[in-house]
Amino acid sequence: MSGTTRPGAATTSPGYRPAGLDDAFSDGGQGAPPPAPATGGQLPALGPVGWLRWAWRQLTSMRVALLLLVLLAVAAVPGTMFPQRPQDPAGVAAYLTDHPSTGPWLDRLGFFDVYASVWFSAIYLLLFVSLIGCILPRTRVHLAAVRGRPPRTPRRLARFPAQGAGTSPDAPQVVVERAAAVLRRRRLGVPAFRADVHDEGGGTWSVSAERGYLRETGNLVFHLALLGLLVAMAAGQMLHYRGQAIVVQGTGFANVQAAYDTFERGTAFDPADLVPFTMRLDDFEARFDPATLQSRDFTAYVTVAEPGGEPQERTIKVNHPIVAGGAKVYLQGNGYAPAVTVHDAAGEVAFSGPVPFLPQDDVYTSRGVVKVPDVSGDQPQVGLVGYLLPTAVEPAPGLWRSVDPQPADPLLVLSVWSGNLGLDTGVPQNAYRLDESRMEQAVDDAGEVVTLYVRPGETVELPDGLGTLTFDDLPRFVALDLRHDPSLAWVLTFALLALAGLTVSLFAPRRRLWLRAAPAQDDGPGPATTVITAAGLARGDDIGLQPELDRVLADVLGTPGPSHHTTGSAGPQEDTT
């Protein structure tokens, strides 16, 4: 008959949920949303405040944060495709020259300084704001949940996926308090469960326990660490500097911007803040495999003098930098720097000193340029272009090559140019290239190019009466890379925190256990018996839930295992959508 039920049948409503489920553990604390009333009219306009609130909610949603993170990675791609002005101004100038139509537009759009462009900074800041707006409300809700208490024991424990039962001769209150002590046992110094004991009346007692808030804590730590990474990386880009310098054996280097061959810095770093230390290259050792000629070890012996301190002898190796003036000093490269002296036609010394030649292969065939601008009178300037062969052999007439990187028989092979070096035009020049646009190459009477072959200690005449060249010595040089970034320690710290938080959020289980102890309802003779029923609930699938419930019951009952348990899907499963 309509509107009647069988005696003893349970009546439920469509929105019914067992006690202990309607909270943050199952549906974020919101419960089932009430049905929207049928208005039948037109929806009200949002207005400016409503649109701002909608935009804020969209910006602080997780999907928008992920979208911005992907967009930031995509926006960084042009920085690897186009030369960047802070690192390679010459490359940018060459690109603008080679692409006169598209180059200026790319320059206006910031493609040659991507990481300081407006659009990249906008994405970065939006991601920053999105993470803050997403994390702060979650942190507030999480702290409130941590300060809360476990939910009370539901009336019907048989509806849950993990179940157990047993009996005990002890009183219900004693059983429940023993269960609470078992649940509160410490693991790694932290209580395993938060437990509350309840007197349900009629001699029935229960305990409710909860664990797993560490999962959400790890999730929040991960996101906070990600936010810290963004801040640290931004600070590093603003406060860092990096420079490269070539130091010849027997000479020194001072940590001032003018001493660097290349120098880049963050927008907030002042070159006046460079720590004024000095470094002298005392010696350099290079070891090669005698059979394969592969490099085995490079060692630079330097003397470092920092302000207010005594000079100290230090050693720099590949991948083993030293710290000087707050900067890490890396050994980036090495080679030979032939020391030459050039006398002009009047016999005056026009140039004297070492000139670094850059290695071109494994046997250190090195290319270099000697520029001689300071000549006497109206004599044309001189440029010498050629190669240094550390161990020279002549396999064919007029054909020379190096067969070993060690300087067993060094030889300079040079061609001679004369004219205007172009050093006074105000246009920056590459120190390792000769501008031949205003120069003429020396040739002999037959029209053949004049080539000079000079060994250490020898002096040769320059063609066309330009003077003489003396090969004095063959010292080594090292290429040093100095980097200062105060954010590196913070980046490492936040990266480790992010990894730890992600690990905890993935592997920390979220569980609730309930245990009820009630007097037996039989009237038989003998001592009173306490009937124990227990149940467990986890967030999502958790194969460890039933075993944990079994262990708790075994400890409470003092038996090797629970007297009874069932596992199935008859009970309600948690909504994980």
From TrEMBL:
Localisation: Membrane
Principal subcellular localisation of the protein: membrane
Keywords assigned: Cytochrome c-type biogenesis, Membrane, Transmembrane, Transmembrane helix
Residue ranges of the region described as Disordered: 1-40, 555-577
Comp. bias (Polar residues): 1-14, 564-577
Residues of the ResB-like domain: 62-550
PANTHER family, sorted: CYTOCHROME C BIOGENESIS PROTEIN CCS1, CHLOROPLASTIC
UniProt-recorded name of the protein: Cytochrome c biogenesis protein ResB
Lineage per the UniProt record: Bacteria, Bacillati, Actinomycetota, Actinomycetes, Micrococcales
